[in-house]
Amino acid sequence: MSIATLGGQISDLRPYNIHGLMLRSRFDNNKAVEICGLESETVTASDLPIISETWNLNPIADHIEGNLPRSIEMLIGADHLAQIDLDSQRSFGDILATNTIFGWVFCGPESKGTSLLSSVLYGKVDQLQPATILSRPAESSPNIVLTGVKPRAISDEQHITVMDLQMLWKSESLGLDDKTQEEEKDTLNEALIEHFKETIKRDPDGRYIVSSFLKKLSKKPTELKAVDDEVANYLAHDFIERASPRKPDQMAHYLPIQAVFKTSPAAPLGLKTRLVKDASARKVNEAGLNDILHVGPFLLPNLLKVYIKFRRYKYTLTADIEKAFLQFKVAEAHRTFLRFFWPLGISTNPQAKIVEFWATRLDFGLVCSPFIHCQGIRHHLEQAARSRPKDKEFIREILETFYMDDCVFGSDSFQDAQSKIRVLFEVFQDGHFPLKKWQTNCESLGDFIQKISPVEAPEVKAGKADAKFLGICWNQETDKIHVSVKGALSELSSGVPSKRRLLRGIPQIFDPLRILSPSIIAAKVLLQQLWKTKLDWDSPLTGTCLEAYNNFLSNLHKIEGIALDRHYTLGSEPNRMELHIFDLI
């Protein structure tokens, strides 16, 4: 049986013991109800609240006498309400008293004047996957359902507005609201990491083996061929293989393919294609694969720490693992849950037969993949630090700032930077993690990478004016960083100034280092003022609000060319550093 719960969440399939029960009133033996119940280890972790005021109603169903336990051991569903309700109710402010065959039952919130309940109940929602029946997929936090509030579907325009607001306020918490520092490691996450350490293996070649926890393209021949070519490429590189026939009673799961396209002039057909398996897909009232996979703890480092590392050294370098997820093999026993169908050759042969494949490498689309990848990299680097004591300090530095598949490091010495490049190649090649893409502010180091790289045809970007690192614009020629405001200028300059246009324009500015913060804050203050005036989203701005809007737009043109030195020390590491903080009053 699977249980559908609040918000449309579906539990995994599990067996339950079923019991027939006769519940009899302790006040009248002639009053009883027969029910059928599911056995569960725990109904709720909360204790029964103690009621101090009963308004002289007797008898009370939940009256606690002596040292009797207050644990809740049975939950009766509403389908039995008619059998136990005596059709008598009393109202006392926010409290509703209902007479039942078991006595008077009290429902409602705690009174403002007197404390009726001596305990506070705490509810927690631990969402593994958003329900597919919802109008919108949830983001990082679960949906909250308010009782007594009529649900209302939101339009695409309203959804975009909500996303803009989330982007705007989340950008303020960089380096301050750090989950990796504040969240305690719960027992589940610790168990997941222990399970990972126990099950990760290496094949004879040294590659890691881990255990996992179509769009309609017929009218788009270019995209159809891009997907068909990518499937063939996966097959050629052993990322997938033809699946073995299912054995009798063998469990299996089949995943639909979702293709993600990105325009890339350098790629064949002008499209960069990524195959993503939709592990969230499921039938109505049945669990999908992502519903029964653990997400795992958040292992990415504080992004601000990564940016500071990027700016620390005279010579800075970044390296990217090629096809990072696909460097992990999936244990053979778990591949049966990663099956999918594809008519190989369909782009040239409309009659191509459908072939059953399964993934042999870690799949995009699985909620556990980011954790497995990050924990796999951490595991490998920790082993490398132990086996290479001479390089331990440098490897620990990489471990602390490794961000998904990007690592950043550097040195104030050219020779030391070369030495670190060699070590990094050796360490990552040992785990079959090819460092394909590189960036550096030094063209000589770029040439050195090309010369010693064990990876065929490495992509090295050095001395370029249009580089980026984790969203920051980086001119490698001048070694300066800046914030792009082109998107914001385009949005704010088009159409009539309004609250919605301002909200859409501000999030276009990605400024994690707060380079333009003294100017951007003016727009946020204006948005706050517009919020207080309760002006409609699309009403034209007038008066002082319009003046402030135009002033911000004018300032945005002026600050467009502002750039800072990437290397914040302007020389060797200083003996003394000062931190200056300003605040707006």
Automatic annotation (TrEMBL):
<protein>
    <submittedName>
        <fullName>Uncharacterized protein LOC100903446</fullName>
    </submittedName>
</protein>
<dbReference type="GO" id="GO:0071897">
    <property type="term" value="P:DNA biosynthetic process"/>
</dbReference>
<dbReference type="InterPro" id="IPR000477">
    <property type="entry name" value="RT_dom"/>
</dbReference>
<dbReference type="InterPro" id="IPR008042">
    <property type="entry name" value="Retrotrans_Pao"/>
</dbReference>
<dbReference type="Pfam" id="PF00078">
    <property type="entry name" value="RVT_1"/>
</dbReference>
<feature type="domain" description="Reverse transcriptase">
    <location>
        <begin position="309"/>
        <end position="436"/>
    </location>
</feature>
<dbReference type="Pfam" id="PF05380">
    <property type="entry name" value="Peptidase_A17"/>
</dbReference>
<dbReference type="InterPro" id="IPR043128">
    <property type="entry name" value="Rev_trsase/Diguanyl_cyclase"/>
</dbReference>
<dbReference type="InterPro" id="IPR043502">
    <property type="entry name" value="DNA/RNA_pol_sf"/>
</dbReference>
